[in-house]
Amino acid sequence: MFEKAQNERQKRIGGSIDKNIDPESYKKAEKELQQYQLQIKNDKYYAVLNFRNADGKRVQKWFNLNLPVKGNKRRAEMILNELLVNYQGYEAIEPMLLLLSQHIAQWLEANRPNIAVTTYDQYCNILNKHIRPYFDPRGITISKLTAGDIEDYYAYKIAEGLNPNSVIKHHAVIRTALQWAVKHRYIRENVADFAEKPNHVRYHGAEPYTIQEIAMLLQATVNEPIAVPIFLASFYGLRRSEVLGLRWSAINFEEGTFGISTTVVREKHENRIITVVRDQTTKTESSMRVLPLPLYLSVFFKFAAVSSLPKKLCGNCYDTRYTDFLCVDQMGTLLQPDYITQKFQQILVKHSLRRIRFHDLRHSCATIMLYLGYTLKDIQTWLGHSNYSFTADTYIHSGVGVHEQMAERLSEELQMLLPPNFDLS
Length: 425
Description:
With 425 residues, the chain is of the alpha+beta class. It has a domain at 218-395: hpI Integrase, Chain A. 47% of the residues lie in helices and 12% in strands. The protein contains 17 helices and eight strands. A hairpin with a 5-residue loop joins strand 2 (44-52) and strand 3 (58-68). Helix 4 (100-110) packs across helix 7 and helix 9 (227-235) runs parallel beside helix 14 (360-371). The model is unreliable at 1-19 and 88-95 (pLDDT under 50).
């Protein structure tokens, strides 16, 4: 009976206690797990809290959650967490002695409904591939974790060759998970706030295309199978997921607008990577936006609609699942994200164009918009970023010869204001 209860308790926290840590720490960790738990009585969930009262005596309190067991485990866990935060005297409960990796796993599962599937997969990869292998052998619990431990981890991963920008993502995961622990009063403070994270390293890949190169690209690829994705990424700076998610029903030809509200992404499901259409889901809230459709582009879209209708010739073989999507192949099947990326590289080689990534078309759009005189705020909303500092740091690039042009322009302006005989010598 005890073993069954222990297994249930371990499932709830997202894993068992690491028995490789010293016996004393193991006993403390096991004792900590008994401070709060879910119990089942008469086929209903109960929350059980153990704490010390004002006299220092240990007290156990049961809360009837009024939830049937079937289908309510997640809801019961959420209520238990609320009780831990709100119940008077909870501060007296000893801090959790879970390993850092176990706590992050618990945080991930508790917040899974609020995390996008692709983001959840990314967090799990960070946890299982990086954080767990480093911290678990060291037996570091969240109550013993220090800022120095975290900084040592960052230095170790960078020494391994991991990009500092990737390590910054690890910092975000660790910090958010620890902040969740602070919120629930498992720990007193978030030591990740005191750890110095690596500096952001700006991407130093190929320079974005100039507006002349974009014109050459569009002219060369007009008859290519991914002509529409290339155009949308070049002119509007759409992400690949947004390009593939664009629907005909989102285009309003009368008002001259179209909306970005659907994305197509690659996600992991049961150990398989599949393509998923996400309705009313974009990378950020700011990414869900409405963009203008000038008359010239309206004609382009109408032409694309006519040229993508071979379904009469295909008959029953035509894939009717994606008739509302712009980016489909000749059989009506939605273009795959990886196909766009790979085909784009083949096209650049075929037409002897300078090699860049498909995503660099988004960078190119942002940089061209800046040169055309638009503000960072304008470009931020055009690209669907949540703040323009990210737009400036990540997407705005200085073009070749720009500094020379700046010097010439400043020199000309000064010459107009200074006397003709002005001499610096």
